[in-house]
Write a structure and sequence with these properties.
Layout lengths: L1 E3 L10 E5 L7 H11 L4 E8 L2 H4 L10 H11 L3 E6 L2 H4 L3 H9 L4 E5 L14 H6 L3 E2 L10 H9 L3 H8 L4 E7 L4 H4 L6 E3 L10 E7 L2 E8 L10 E6 L10 E11 L7 H17 L6
Parallel strand pairs: 1-4, 2-3, 2-5, 3-4, 5-6
Antiparallel strand pairs: 7-8, 7-12, 9-10, 9-12, 10-11
Length: 289
């Protein structure tokens, strides 16, 4: 997939353009994308960075990094994405200016948007505005009960089956492996310590089963209370994995919450519990989507 950062970088040709933030690229977003992809025109996306609500000073716990969002758009079949900076100048555009510069300017003939899509200064533009400008507004099947905010709520509550059903895939943690306390190796269970963007949503603390790098993973999310920790750590132990992950990006699927964090009577009791967590991870089932 080609990635552009300004309309001038996008060759003008007949396009069907899907517009939205697409945080999570969930089942509702995929319905919008399918409309563009099935149009017969070149399927193109216009997405925004940062998230518009964040740009306006609000707190949003994101479901995906921009990097992961672009990967998922490519996997869905999008051939080109225009990542638009959601700046104050961009926000001040009238709907007509956006249509001329970002749609007509790149050859858009058809547009796919969600039912609540609004654009332009004071959110004055909508689907009718697009149609009045001569663009074909593609029909999009609405997926009831699916939204980024609902998925965030499910993730915070560690309802991973519900989150997966809305996403169309398991919820993922995404970050770079950095040096940690290296305590897991001394216990026989070396973990990768993931530095994750603080803007990303995270489930409530506990021990989880999932998958990363093609291996099942027992994942600790929390403060390591047994050792008196205070900072959040995300530490997957990849079963049957040998190798060096330092400095590598790791995308971790979460399948099931196994238990709460705990303080143990001894280190031996902790190791015994970790062994049980590993066996539970081997038995865990990837949530159906």
């Amino acid at each position: 997939m080609r990635i552009a950062h300004a309309p001038s970088q996008v060759e003008r040709r007949p396009r069907a353009v899907a517009i939205g933030t697409f945080d999570g690229v969930h089942r509702g977003h995929l319905s919008v994308l399918r409309s563009a992809i099935g149009s017969g025109l070149e399927p193109t996306v216009i997405t925004f960075e940062p998230h518009p609500r964040i740009a306006m000073g609000n707190r949003v716990d994101l479901l995906t990094t921009l990097e992961r969002r672009l990967e998922l758009l490519a996997e869905a079949g999008v051939t080109e994405t225009l990542v638009t900076s959601f700046t104050p100048e961009f926000q001040r555009q009238t709907p007509e200016e956006f249509i001329a510069g970002y749609l007509v300017g790149i050859g858009a003939e058809a547009v796919a948007v969600g039912a609540d899509f609004r654009f332009g200064q004071k959110r004055a533009g909508d689907s009718d505005t697009l149609a009045t400008a001569g663009l074909t507004v593609l029909e999009v099947e609405e997926i009831e009960g699916v939204s980024s905010s609902s998925i965030r709520d499910a993730v915070r509550e560690a309802d991973l089956a519900r989150a997966a059903a809305m996403l169309g895939r398991p919820f993922e943690l995404d970050g770079v492996v950095v040096t940690g306390d290296q305590r897991g190796g001394t216990l026989g269970y070396p973990t990768a310590n993931i530095a994750m963007d603080p803007l990303l949503v995270c489930p409530r603390y506990g021990i989880y089963a999932g998958q990363a790098f093609g291996h099942r993973a027992a994942v600790s999310i929390g403060t390591n209370p047994h050792y008196g920790g205070t900072e959040r750590r995300i530490e997957p132990f990849l079963l049957d994995f040998e190798g060096d992950l330092y400095g590598k990006r790791l995308v971790v699927e979460l399948w099931e919450r196994l238990r709460d964090e705990a303080v143990f009577a001894s280190e031996e009791a902790l190791v015994e519990q970790i062994a049980r967590d590993v066996e539970a991870t081997r038995a865990a089932v990837r949530p159906g989507v």
